[in-house]
Amino acid sequence: SFKIIMGSMLDVLKWMWYHRNYIIIVVTPLAFLPLPLCVHPDYSQEAKCGFVIILMALYWCTECMPLAVTALLPVVLFPMMGIMKAGDVSIEYLKDSNMLFVGGLLVAIAVEHWNLHKRIALRVLLLVGVRPALLMMGFMIVSAFLSMWISNTATTAMMLPIAQAVLQQLQATETQAEERDFQNAAEENLGFEMESRKIKEGIPDEKNTDTKLQQENGIESMRENRRKAMEEKYSRLTKGMSLSVCYSASIGGTATLTGTTPNLILKGQIDKLYPGNGDVINFASWFGFAFPNMVLMLVISWLWLQFMFLGFNLKKSFGCGIKSDRDKEAYAVMKEEYKKLGGMKFAEGGVLTIFILLVLLWFTREPGFIPGWATVLFNKEDSFVSDGTVAIFMSMLFFVIPSQLFSGGSYGFTEAGKRIKAPPTLLNWQVVHERMPWNIILLLGGGFALAAGSEVNNQKLHIFKLTAALVVSGLSNWLGSSLAPLQKIPPFAISILLSLLVATFTECSSNTATTTLFLPILGSMATAIELHPLYVMLPCTIAASLAFMLPVATPPNAIAFSFGNLKVIDMVRAGFMLNIIGILCINLGINTWGYVMFDMGTFPQWANNTHSIP
């Protein structure tokens, strides 16, 4: 009977697990319904907003509904609960940050559509070479550079097949070299045996046969040992190369404002929570802080992965001297792949030109140390032109510039007299429609809507803008008193602890959801203890991209896990140390060049919002 009861309980638990999404969707709002219904009337609006935030946080963390669908909840719940008008909520879903995101994605789609990213990747790898350590360095540099401009997932998906092809060629050529060595050894043994037979004609044939069998067995045993050693070597190399690609894609995405979604969420939240910040986060200022940090993380990550999977035999890894046959053959594979691309087409040149112009315009719009072109031409009185304006303007050129030059005889006709059709433009809307991740735009909008709802309904709570919306009546005073001791803790310790918290949380939640949830809270906390908001918000934003330990943490990790014959423990071992390395690098940056760039030592006037409270 006990077994029957246990079996029934297991069946019930299995059923609940298989239907967990439906259970979470229904049970979560019912469980937290007392929050808006039972609190003191003075805190009813805050409690309603807190209910929405908790509900969305749990839905995002469990992914019981698609993230983008959960992000639309404020459109329904805020108006129905009297928190915000429907029109005001809807406006939040297409802010300037979303326009910047759309423009950056259009550039990435154009680069991928014309295979420009593959050309760049192969060209750099041909320059770097195929020795193990240099090859890993080359793949990491290319992956990091590409992910600065296109999505981390697209970078990983493009680079891993190239890495696999190169490693397979390396293994095949090394196997052939080993076979040649064994054949030469066998021929030498055969010649030696014939010579010895002439000398030892008096020895019986049985003894000669035994000696021959022993020699053959010894060669076979040596061959088997060498084969196993080679398989083990290339298994480690494949694991290391797969992880290096996916990790460097995540690291590279932190270097530019458009490189990954959390960066844009930070800009959006800073502009929303602190409207008078003077555009403290723009493309140039972000790049100035994040690019050196990215390079530092990339170098130390390469050293760690080199140690884990290749060892520190510098002569063997870097390969001093003449290239071996297998190196030349692997190099030939990449060269052949590059030749297949042919010469650079007009379309590729057009995309590359627009891409370079976009980056230059972003850098020079408002560099900080001198007036930028936008300040001189358009932003004399107010910030009319933003990075989003530039991104949309340049990306519109993809729909204007033709993908090939007009050619032929007389205008509009070929030499044979046939009419020439107009060439297609660099991009068409069908390609954009298929590749644009519209769900991310809704996800960004959901985060901005949450921040707007929290800001509107926290005027009564003064300095606790969003944090008070997360707690029930009477708890806000406790929270305020509990935050006060943080002023006695050194700021660098606060930054490190919060970065650790975010990096841990992002392993089991998307980095977009993590930053959307944490950044408004961190901003309120920084304001409460009069700490520069960027001192905690900036490190935690980058820490949200340090999801290195689990295959499910990010799509690049999942792709690498399927490609590299990895076990979860491999990723945990490598990723745990990289998380620590990343957090230390970020906090080193925020306390050195970042400290000077953003004047972290003073509490900025734009962060002091108490003057706006009636």
From TrEMBL:
Main localization (coarse): membrane
Topology of this chain in the membrane: Multi-pass membrane protein
Keywords of the record: Ion transport, Membrane, Sodium, Sodium transport, Transmembrane, Transmembrane helix, Transport
Intracellular or extracellular location(s): Membrane
InterPro entries (UniProt xref): SLC13A/DASS
Membrane-spanning ranges: 20-39, 51-78, 98-116, 128-150, 283-305, 346-364, 384-401, 438-456, 492-514, 534-553, 574-596
GO cellular component: plasma membrane
Listed GO MF terms: alpha-ketoglutarate transmembrane transporter activity; fumarate transmembrane transporter activity; sodium:dicarboxylate symporter activity; succinate transmembrane transporter activity
GO annotation terms (biological process): cellular response to lithium ion
Protein family according to the UniProt entry: Belongs to the SLC13A/DASS transporter (TC 2.A.47) family. NADC subfamily.
Name this polypeptide is given: Solute carrier family 13 member 2
